[in-house]
Amino acid sequence: MSILLLLSVHEELREKTVTLGMQNAWENHCRDQVNLKKYAKAMRELATKHWECNIKAQPSVLSRIEWTYIQCKSYFTGDIYKFREKQKEIADKMKFKIAATSAYYTGKDCRQIEIAGCRKLDCLEVIAIDIAPGSDDVLKCDFLNVNAGNSLKVSNTEVQALPQNYFDVIVFSLLLEYLPYAKQRLTCCKKAYSLLKTEGLLVIVTPDSNRVGANAKYIKSWRFILADLGFSRVKYEKLPHIHCMAFRKEFCTDVARRWAELYRKNQVYSEMVIPQDFKSPDISKPEKNEHEQYTFEYVDEFPDCDEEANKLRELLRTKPEKVKKDPKTRRESRHERRDCVLF
Ligand SMILES: C[S@@+](CC[C@H](N)C(=O)[O-])C[C@H]1O[C@@H](n2cnc3c(N)ncnc32)[C@H](O)[C@@H]1O
Fold first, then answer.
1. Bridge partners of 242?
2. Which residues are part of a known binding site?
3. Does residue 131's CB lie within 6 angstroms of at least one atom of ligand 1?
4. What torsion do the CA atoms of 92, 93, 97, 102 make, to the nearest 10 degrees?
5. ipTM of the complex
6. Which of 8, 22, 191, 275 is deepest in the core (most CB within 10 A)?
7. Is RNA-binding set as a keyword in this record (predicted)?
């Protein structure tokens, strides 16, 4: 397993969006099943062996999976009623129209879908999907382009359609930053909105190794954009290396939008941007140390309790030439790095 392999897949996808455009680059990326499989294997190993082991060694640190599970449990067994009452009060006061109460969560048949799933949450009924499943219990599906219909349609372990107004929980665990375009992130959130039941939860986990508040302008802006779609934030926590957020699909979209209108002056970005969007490689103007910088930026997203990431950081600090092959072209270098095993 190599973190470099994960990094090179992200880098290549970002480069392709510059050269081929968003749609072609994405189709091209999804067709490259050989590399996607390698990515899935490496990611699964990193997620299940390295991160979970490191987290177990620090009992006070919650993993993204535990965080998601705790929030779902706490929301559906109690908080949902508090939110419902509070939002009803606002809707009554503002004379907003409320969706039919029969659509509300009733506590029966909790259904969850984990997008980009390389492992399932225990204890809940779950469907896990991924463009390149890392194990047999994950179904193949491109969430960006899958149809939202009346029922779940699966053919040969591949999802053809996902049902609307069906799921109680949708989990995007390290999914949104995989997508190189802000528009694609928004498409995923809009789709999640259509698939969730009223009062269902959208859980978003996104990596960030910086201190609390360092990237607040991005996280805040996401909240405004999600509020415009009809989501209210239920919970936010910055854990080491990740932001964890839970949003509920409001029974009254005007309630969520009202919050956004009240605090709009705090919204910095009008799109679902991430820090990497401002560092996108412009391949028409390659910089001298671009490879090196790029690897630094991405490796920073991996936990510093991760041994392999630490070795790579150290190597980049002390002997960057060992990582940087100083290629004639960026493309050659990328392929070299994909297959090189440093550790
Ligand atoms: C960084 S990994 C995270 C994996 C896992 N969810 C976790 O938390 O460890 C991102 C995953 O998202 C998947 N992915 C990216 N875009 C997707 C899409 N449009 N539909 C389904 N899965 C997608 C990738 O294949 C990859 O496995």
1. 207, 239
2. 130
3. yes
4. -20
5. 0.98
6. 8
7. no
Using CA positions, which residue lies closest to atom 26 of ligand 1? 116
- Give the model confidence (pLDDT) of 53-84 as tens digits: 556 656 666 788 889 988 988 998 889 999 99
What are 277-336's pLDDT values in tens digits? 887 554 333 333 444 444 544 555 555 555 666 677 677 667 666 664 434 333 333 322
- The helix or strand, by DSSP H or E, that contains position 45, with its residue range, turns out to be helix 33-45
- Note the residue count of the chain: 343
Residue 79 in contact with ligand 1 by CB distance below 6 A = no
Distance of CA 337 to the CA centre of its chain: 25
Instruction: Specify the DSSP element, H or E, that contains 151.
Output: none
For residue 179, which atom of ligand 1 is closest to its CA?
Answer: 16
- The model's pTM is 0.82
Whether residue 174 has its Cβ less than 6 Å from ligand 1 = yes
Of 41, 131, 145, the residue with max ligand 1 atoms within 8 A of its CB, to mutate for a pocket test, comes to 131
